[in-house]
Design goal:
Layout: H1 5-16, H2 24-30, H3 34-42, H4 45-49, H5 56-67, H6 72-88, H7 92-105, H8 114-131, H9 141-146, E1 158-160, E2 169-172, E3 178-183, E4 195-198, E5 206-211, E6 221-222, E7 226-231, E8 237-240, E9 248-253, E10 262-267, E11 272-275, E12 286-290, E13 296-300, E14 306-310, E15 321-330, E16 336-341, E17 349-357, E18 360-364, E19 372-375
Parallel strand pairs: 1-3, 2-4, 3-5, 4-6, 5-7, 7-9, 8-10, 9-11, 10-12, 11-13, 12-14, 13-15, 14-16, 15-17, 16-18, 17-19
Helix pairs in contact: 1-2, 1-3, 1-5, 1-7, 1-8, 3-7, 5-6, 7-8
Length: 376
């Protein structure tokens, strides 16, 4: 004799913290008893969920607290009861079946479990309705858990690039990955032979490069949201990001009393490039240039007193919109000089400039081939 849909759903809720979705019919029709289905599911729960549920205490708290949402006195009492069952040697399947059967049939309003039982029954009924309707084709565990408000945080990967002549290949997933490498005169771990790609555009990956030499170009870098360049040198670094997709790029100079500027070339359209620590701009400018065909670029000059932005040349004749910000405390004696490089486009380039201070100098570049329109 098959069990009811509510009984099957109750077990799925308690064990997986999920709605049954497209599995509901087969679970309820294929089981002959609640305890039998509970026994079958409990043996593979850890494997299905990707969790270590081998310890009884971990299993207990996952079922009672995480999935059934018991709190306060009800949680304490349930933990005590379940610990006692473990001590007696009762199988997990039998413990699980007893728990959901009790909650499903509890009518004693004076019971410490009454509120939890009422909530449990409402949740099960709603999950059955969804599983037999809109969720009838949903089969994935993550999606079924998410339907119950349980979204599992996926840990990102940490990957350190190597000196392999063939190049490293890193493929990220839907989590915040961290990749690190070095750029030096010799023995660089990041080179143009490396491929760094990510399948997700909704996470927050970071590529950190520790540099003591210039970066002449990149290998494919795709869907990496942040690129951090930590330069350590007395000479301003030059970094070409010609094969990196749009991202947030931050350049720092970690050398004490080192160079206070940098040049970032080949930047993808839609990127934001920021002058980070050590970019004072008293001696050297912070220069950012979009790549051929770029149509939009944001430059955060930070506290740099010299900011140059634009495109040195463009074979596509594509105008670029520049959004330039500065937080430097400029004065008449130490003004912020913002220079705009034209793109050689037939259309007008547009620069939106925001800066603070009492003196901002807008400097036309001698190499600018296009008209530049400055917006207040």
């Amino acid at each position: 004799m098959a069990i009811t849909a509510n009984q099957a759903q109750g077990l799925v809720l308690a064990l997986f913290g999920a709605s049954a979705g497209g599995h509901l019919t087969s679970l309820s029709s294929g089981a002959t008893s609640v305890s039998g289905l509970a026994a079958d599911l409990s043996t593979s729960a850890g494997l299905i969920l990707g969790r270590d549920l081998s310890a009884n205490a971990t299993f207990r708290d996952f079922v009672l607290s995480t999935n059934l949402k018991l709190t306060g006195a009800a949680l304490t009492a349930a933990q005590t009861w379940m610990d006692g069952e473990f001590t007696k040697g009762t199988a997990r399947g039998d413990i699980l079946a007893a728990a959901v059967t009790y909650l499903d049939g509890l009518t004693d309003t004076s019971s410490v479990f009454y509120a939890a039982a009422t909530s449990y029954r409402a949740t099960v009924t709603s999950a059955v309705t969804w599983s037999q309707g809109a969720g009838s084709t949903v089969l994935g565990v993550s999606a079924l858990r998410a339907q119950q408000g349980n979204v599992d945080a996926v840990a990102g990967q940490s990957f350190t690039l190597t000196t392999s002549a063939a190049g490293d290949v890193f493929t990220g997933m839907s989590a915040d990955d961290n990749i690190s490498g070095t750029v030096a005169a010799a023995g660089s771990t990041y080179t143009t032979a490396d491929t760094i790609v990510d399948s997700s555009t909704t996470d927050n990956d970071t590529l950190t490069l520790a540099t003591t030499a210039n970066l002449a170009g990149t290998g494919p870098i795709s869907n990496i949201e942040n690129i951090i360049i930590n330069h350590t040198s007395f000479t301003s670094g030059a970094f070409t990001l010609d094969k990196a997709s749009a991202s947030k790029v931050t350049v720092n100079n970690k050398q004490a009393a080192g160079a206070d500027g940098a040049t970032v070339d080949g930047v993808a359209s839609g990127s934001t490039v920021t002058a980070g620590t050590g970019m004072a701009g008293a001696t050297d400018a912070f220069i950012v240039r979009g790549r051929d065909g770029a149509t939009a670029l944001t430059v955060d000059g930070g506290t740099s007193l010299q900011i140059k932005a634009g495109k040195a040349a463009d074979t596509t004749a594509a105008a670029i919109t520049l959004n330039i910000t500065s937080s430097a405390a400029s004065t008449t004696t130490t003004p912020v000089a913002i220079s705009i490089e034209g793109s050689a486009a037939t259309a007008k380039d547009v620069a939106n400039i925001t800066a603070k201070g009492t003196q901002i100098d807008l400097v036309p570049m001698a190499t600018a081939l296009a008209q530049t329109k400055l917006k207040p």
